[in-house]
Amino acid sequence: MASVNLREEAALMLTRSSVVAELEIHDARIIVDAMRPMAVRAGTVIMREGQDDDVDYMALVLEGQVRAESSGMGDGNEVVISVIDAGQLFGEMGLIDGSPRSATCTALTDLKLAMLTRKALRGLVEVQPGVAARLMLSISRGLADRLRESNRRLRTLSQISRAMQAELGTTHALNKRLLAEKARTKG
């Protein structure tokens, strides 16, 4: 990374990031040194849902905000998953597995990012295996937290769906009864 102040600021952000908060400042500095800086203009799509090339990196937002959204039900309506602020990471799954992107990430503002590629991570594994292991454990913990939250939301949606189905069933039965009564009174 370019300047010493930006390097230190990025390292401090990593130690405070909800995903990798357990990293010590020394570890964070080593990770930041493996990252490359990137400036992105507002409105730029950084990664697109389903994208299967150039997926082997994650980014730390140093300045600005990123909107993460998904195509939802495939009906063309985008669902905002989250707004990612300075000090937060995105793209971790691509760093780990290289699979197609699961969300579209767009710069809401001009951004300063620090990018960590899989190649740089492999270099960390070889040169600083302890730091790389602590980073991967932290990322894994963050992904597990998001999965638990997704499961909680899924349970809530399932409960709402069951309640709506029960309500529709009751309404259908009532409508059937009313139609039958109306047919008897006409007959």
TrEMBL record:
Q: Name all Cyclic nucleotide-binding domain ranges.
A: 19-125
Q: Which SMART domains match?
A: cNMP
Q: Which GO terms describe its molecular function?
A: DNA-binding transcription factor activity
State the InterPro entries in the record. Answer: cNMP-bd_dom, cNMP-bd_dom_sf, Env_Response_Regulators, RmlC-like_jellyroll
Q: Which GO terms describe its cellular component?
A: cytosol
- CDD domains named in the record: CAP_ED
Cite the Pfam families for this sequence.
cNMP_binding (PF00027)
What name has this protein been given in UniProt?
Cyclic nucleotide-binding domain-containing protein
Source organism of the structure: Pseudacidovorax intermedius
